[in-house]
């Protein structure tokens, strides 16, 4: 696997950019897809957002200063793109935030690329009751098995605050699953 | 079994030797949500077959479609906005001026009813002579006045309306003409 610094250098040089970008896409597409999918839930939406994320990365790679890791920077773009996508969609439909989340769950059941069992569907309903930050932390830690330090860099939140968020999220989800 | 000489409590064999290991293992499991939680380990999402193979060329083709951006050395947009603002101010100014200027009114613009109303209401204080001086009669009008035979009824009605204590006898006018 190519070292991150080398990849960044190649991405920032015009003659090597195309080849390096292909390497970048192949390296991160799956991880970013699952991160996005767990935010937007629907496959087609996740596909749109993933492509937009990589296009933004491509357009802005020259501005990347290397203050953070490349993959943290890409995760940040993916997170922002996903949340913005959802906001625009809810605004377009003209419903409240909670009503939009409920509709997302309803649509999920009709999604051919979702094969959730009853308990998995309940999990999504439980996740829909959480604040955005708690939901993000839970998905990144529980399903993507990311380290707190990496999540901290992506979400720009201290490790302590992340642990608290994760703990609260787990308790709330468990309580929801017990009640319903 | 290990005995505590003071409290007489027993601990299992090797309890303290591997305590740290067990503690760290539990912390790790808790962090990973593996403590017999109700939360399922997978969330039921899947992707279409070959999706991850096909998405790479889709993304790369989109980046190739992008044309190089042309940056203007000097942005003219601010000048356009300034020009538009100045034009808007001028248009507004001329419209206001045009609307507030009162047009010149001449005598022909007055309706005859307005003139009649003025003469009826205004106290002109003009004598017959003064009126005669300003009101020019041409010959035809004067002849109409002198030679037109007015009906007696009209004359009597005029007198009734304008002369107090009108007595027919005083004027030698008699309705019957017999007396």
TrEMBL record, chain A:
**Any one Gene Ontology biological process term?**
DNA-templated transcription initiation
| Gene Ontology molecular function, alphabetical | DNA binding; sigma factor activity
**Ranges for the RNA polymerase sigma-70 region domain?**
24-90
Keywords carried by this UniProt record: Sigma factor, Transcription, Transcription regulation
- InterPro entries per record: RNA_pol_sigma-70-like, RNA_pol_sigma-70_dom, RNA_pol_sigma70_r2, RNA_pol_sigma70_r4_t2, RNA_pol_sigma_r2, RNA_pol_sigma_r3/r4-like, WH-like_DNA-bd_sf
The segment(s) forming the RNA polymerase sigma factor 70 region 4 type domain are 121-173
**Keyword Chloroplast among record annotations:** no
UniProt cross-references to PANTHER family, sorted A to Z: RNA POLYMERASE ECF-TYPE SIGMA FACTO (PTHR43133), RNA POLYMERASE SIGMA FACTOR (PTHR43133:SF51)
Q: Which family does it belong to?
A: Belongs to the sigma-70 factor family. ECF subfamily.
Any idea what this protein is called? RNA polymerase sigma-70 factor, ECF subfamily
Species assigned in the record? Flagellimonas zhangzhouensis
UniProtKB/TrEMBL annotation, chain B:
For this UniProt record, give its keywords in alphabetical order, as a comma-separated list: Membrane, Transmembrane, Transmembrane helix
Keyword Transmembrane helix applies: yes
Membrane-crossing residues? 79-96
State the name under which the record lists this protein. Answer: Uncharacterized protein
């Amino acid at each position: 696997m190519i070292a991150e610094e080398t990849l960044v250098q190649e991405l920032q040089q015009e003659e090597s950019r195309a080849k390096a970008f292909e390497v970048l896409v192949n390296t991160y597409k799956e991880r970013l897809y699952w991160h996005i999918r767990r935010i937007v839930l629907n496959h087609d939406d996740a596909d749109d957002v993933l492509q937009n994320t990589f296009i933004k990365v491509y357009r802005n790679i020259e501005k990347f200063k290397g203050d953070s890791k490349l993959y943290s920077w890409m995760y940040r773009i993916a997170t922002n793109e996903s949340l913005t996508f959802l906001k625009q969609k809810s605004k377009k439909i003209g419903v409240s935030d909670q009503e939009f989340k409920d509709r997302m769950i309803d649509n999920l059941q009709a999604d051919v690329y979702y094969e959730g069992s009853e308990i998995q569907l309940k999990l999504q309903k439980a996740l829909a009751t959480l604040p955005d930050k708690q939901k993000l932390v839970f998905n990144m830690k529980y399903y993507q098995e990311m380290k707190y330090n990496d999540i901290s860099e992506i979400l720009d939140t201290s490790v302590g605050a992340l642990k608290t968020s994760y703990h609260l999220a787990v308790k709330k989800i468990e309580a929801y699953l017990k009640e319903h | 079994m290990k005995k505590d000489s003071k409290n007489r409590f027993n601990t299992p064999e090797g309890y303290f030797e591997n305590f740290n290991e067990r503690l760290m293992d539990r912390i790790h499991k808790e962090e990973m949500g593996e403590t017999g939680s109700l939360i399922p380990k997978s969330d039921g999402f899947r992707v279409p077959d070959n999706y991850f193979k096909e998405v790479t060329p889709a993304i790369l083709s989109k980046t190739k479609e992008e044309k190089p951006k042309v940056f203007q050395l000097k942005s003219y947009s601010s000048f356009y906005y300034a020009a538009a603002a100045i034009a808007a101010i001028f248009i507004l100014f001329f419209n206001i001026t045009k609307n507030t200027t009162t047009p010149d009114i001449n005598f022909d613009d007055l309706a005859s009813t307005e003139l009649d109303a003025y003469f009826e209401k205004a106290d002109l204080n003009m004598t017959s002579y003064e009126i005669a001086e300003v009101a020019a009669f041409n010959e035809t009008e004067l002849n109409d006045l002198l030679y037109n035979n007015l009906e007696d009824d009209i004359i009597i009605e005029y007198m009734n309306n304008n002369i107090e204590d009108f007595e027919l006898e005083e004027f030698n006018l008699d309705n019957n003409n017999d007396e």
